[in-house]
Amino acid sequence: MELLSGADMITRFLADEGVEYIYGYPGGAALHIYDAIHRQDKVNHILVRHEQAATHMADGYARATGKPGVVLVTSGPGATNAVTGIATAFMDSIPMVVLCGQVASHLIGEDAFQETDIIGVTRPIVKHSFSIEDPSEIPMILRKAFYIATTGRPGPVVVDIPKDMTAPTEKYEYVFPKKVKMRSYTPVGRGHTGQIKKAVDLILKAKRPILYGGGGLVLGGASELFTQLAKKLNFPVTTSLMGIGAYPQTDRQSVGWLGMHGSFEANQAMHHSDLVVCIGARFDDRATNNVSKFCPTARIVHVDIDPSSIGKTIRVDVPIVGTATSVLEEMLALLDESKTQLKADALVDWWKQIDAWSASRAGRIYEPAEPGETMKPQQVVEAVWKATQGKAYVVTDVGQHQMFAAQYYKFDKPNHWITSGGLGTMGFGFPAAMGIKLNKPDEEVVLITGEGSFQMMMQELSTCSQFGIPVKIINLNNQSLGMVRQWQDLNYQARHAQSYMQSLPDFKMLVESYGHVAMKVEKAEDLDAAIEKTFAMKDKLVFLDVYVDPHEHVYPMQVPQGSMNDMLLSKTERT
Amino acid sequence: MRHIISILMENEAGALSRVVGLFSQRNFNIETLNVAPTDDPTLSRLTVTTTGDERVIEQITKQLNKLIDVVKLVDLTEGQHIERELMLVKVKAVGAQRAEVKRTTEIFRGQIIDVTPSIYTVQLAGHASKLDAFIQALGGSTLLEVARTGVSGVARGEKVLSL
Ligand SMILES: Cc1ncc(C[n+]2csc(CCOP(=O)(O)OP(=O)(O)O)c2C)c(N)n1
Ligand SMILES: [Mg+2]
């Protein structure tokens, strides 16, 4: 039997759970835990420069690896600084465990120094939360926290730890709980076979079908099975923004991603389809446009691990609650056994139509800059795609650059497109990229950001020098809050209220002051060489400040309140 | 439509605030709410009456089921059920009203459980609509205070909500 203090139990538990890195920032209420971290060498702590960055680092790591990210912050301001990152993870169902120091139990409720009811503050943005009331509970509560964060529909779990729970003088028996069972929580398993059969019947009868994959395929490790199904059926495949990479985008059957800035052909195909088979997406408002005009002729099959996602925003014909992998396996088996089989030419007309939509390249045409001209953001992303052979982990912030990255980088593998989709958190990208690079040092990790977003978390340049985290940063510098500016161009007669950035720093000097490499590119003819140089410096953080056209808009863009295929295709064209 | 949803949940700190928070966070409606531990002290039973169309009620039950502290729930209005609510009413009882209040209480099978020279405190249990009717019937009297527990209920017959 082993006797450990609460603080030592925490570090010991994390080691036993297989946690290699935690991201955090110390403070009074967490100091016993920090001392315990100092006295062991299994769990490495990465000291960020702002707690929000700790949550995004953990989040990025989780998105790229499927494993839970772990964060440690102190009470009060430490915990409240983490809130944006917790909400970001919650909206995209990312597994994360956030350990928060808290004032000692006897002070709770007295407005003690650095006391915040963080359980209350985070209640609507966590999958669950725990408060430690007795140090002996620490191993079991942490085990439950990891279990809840990683199973079913994943999400962040907050554990509030009053300082007296970690006092070094009081020791308790420590055993790593092998099993965890909760009568009130049973993660969803297989889908209902009867329902899956119904779905397969519809699939076999469809004339204008489309497969629609979401982030659930990526989180659930179901991309391969999804690809198998698509190949077997020869159906066109679209994904949500979060599902990018769940199906190889360079494959012939891929019509790109759908929604507000999705591809012309994806939105057209959805609108005209007679069957939408959605797996692991939640039909959010940026994907469906006006729900009352959504896919007017389609039957809808919806597979999701979360029953509350089904029927929430749109009417569904065949709901299936289950894990993506189990349902896909069963669908594939049923298709193999089925007496009726797809006719080889059943979809000829449908594909003819889709190929025509794709060939039009509608909404995708931009004029690359001539030598001497300011670059188009699209061409920068295309150059990055080529330079990295489409294999990099591409992380973004939020804005036009995010949409350009999604449109012009082609992803053939899941878990490589890393973006804050649900919450749309500016500042997410840099720390998320750091979290990935730290854990995958041999992989190329590229941040595509904007000068607005980058300034929200640029203090982390310091963390990167301390821990040697050589991410590559492509700053699509349009000297404005481009996405806001675009909406103002379209909806407010180009009145640019607070959407331009005055007093931008000299990013090159700024980045260099932290000991990193930086380059500024202003002309199209210098782009390729600069990108080549950037990726050649394997062990350096390189910041490429690329000046791009501030007047560029992201197209296609769905017309608000319209149907899926109601799109602006350029500043002058509309479907 | 009005629905009565009964929930068995872990009797733990924070469980109630999660349930109540869910309703405000998702813009669901709460008309009445009551909660107390059951015969098993590790479980609380919470009953909420709410209104909404089919889609809203479906979301409410699904979202509630997602809460980790919720062990089981039932929408009692989906089947035959019995619902009761308890009310305590303090009403002015002077002059002619004194006899009138007493008579009305008897008609509704309520009990006067506290008396002063000028006040009756009436206890009444029953279907929520009966409590409403009683208050209506007391129309002429001066109501000083009304305390209602919110609806509690069970399914009729064999069906039970338990682990
Ligand atoms: C934290 C946060 N605040 C505000 C917004 C609203 N917003 C969305 S995009 C955007 C502009 C982003 O500017 P930049 O990072 O320069 O990207 P660009 O659109 O110019 O490519 C803003 C302000 C947001 N998404 N996140
Ligand atoms: Mg910008």
Automatic annotation (TrEMBL), chain A:
Tell me where in this chain the Thiamine pyrophosphate enzyme N-terminal TPP-binding domain is found. 5-118
Describe how the cofactor binds.
Binds 1 thiamine pyrophosphate per subunit. Binds 1 Mg(2+) ion per subunit.
Cited InterPro entries: Acetolactate_synth_lsu, AHAS_TPP, DHS-like_NAD/FAD-binding_dom, THDP-binding, Thiamin_PyroP_enz_cen_dom, Thiamin_PyroP_enz_TPP-bd_dom, TPP_enz, TPP_enzyme_TPP-bd
Q: In which pathway does it act?
A: Amino-acid biosynthesis; L-valine biosynthesis; L-valine from pyruvate: step 1/4; Amino-acid biosynthesis; L-isoleucine biosynthesis; L-isoleucine from 2-oxobutanoate: step 1/4
- What's the superkingdom here? Bacteria
E.C. number? 2.2.1.6
Sorted alphabetically, which keywords does the UniProt record give? Amino-acid biosynthesis, Branched-chain amino acid biosynthesis, Magnesium, Metal-binding, Thiamine pyrophosphate, Transferase
Q: Which residues form the Thiamine pyrophosphate enzyme central domain?
A: 196-330
- Which CDD domains does the protein's record reference? TPP_AHAS, TPP_PYR_POX_like
Tell me its cofactors: thiamine diphosphate; Mg(2+)
Task: Please write the reaction equations for the catalytic activity of this protein.
Answer: 2 pyruvate + H(+) = (2S)-2-acetolactate + CO2
Q: Where is the Thiamine pyrophosphate enzyme TPP-binding domain?
A: 397-546
Pfam assignment, any one = TPP_enzyme_M
* Enzyme class, first EC level, given as a word: transferase
NCBIfam families referenced in this protein's UniProt entry, alphabetically: acolac_lg (TIGR00118), PRK06466.1 (NF005058)
Q: Give the similarity note.
A: Belongs to the TPP enzyme family.
Question: Can you say what this protein is called?
Answer: Acetolactate synthase
This chain's source organism reads Marinospirillum insulare
Q: Report which gene this protein is encoded by.
A: ilvB_2
Automatic annotation (TrEMBL), chain B:
The ACT domain sits at: 4-78
Enzymatic class: transferase
Q: In which pathway does it act?
A: Amino-acid biosynthesis; L-valine biosynthesis; L-valine from pyruvate: step 1/4; Amino-acid biosynthesis; L-isoleucine biosynthesis; L-isoleucine from 2-oxobutanoate: step 1/4
Q: Which Gene3D superfamilies does the record cross-reference, listed alphabetically?
A: 3.30.70.260, ACT-like. Chain A, domain 2 (3.30.70.1150)
EC number(s): the record gives 2.2.1.6
Q: Write out the catalysed reaction.
A: 2 pyruvate + H(+) = (2S)-2-acetolactate + CO2
Q: Which UniProt keywords apply?
A: Amino-acid biosynthesis, Branched-chain amino acid biosynthesis, Transferase
The regions listed as transmembrane in this protein's record are none
Record carries keyword Repressor: no
Fill in the subunit field for this protein.
Answer: Dimer of large and small chains.
Q: Please give the function described in this protein's UniProt entry.
A: Catalyzes the conversion of 2 pyruvate molecules into acetolactate in the first common step of the biosynthetic pathway of the branched-amino acids such as leucine, isoleucine, and valine.
- Membership in a protein family: Belongs to the acetolactate synthase small subunit family.
Q: What is this protein called?
A: Acetolactate synthase small subunit
Q: Which gene encodes it?
A: ilvH
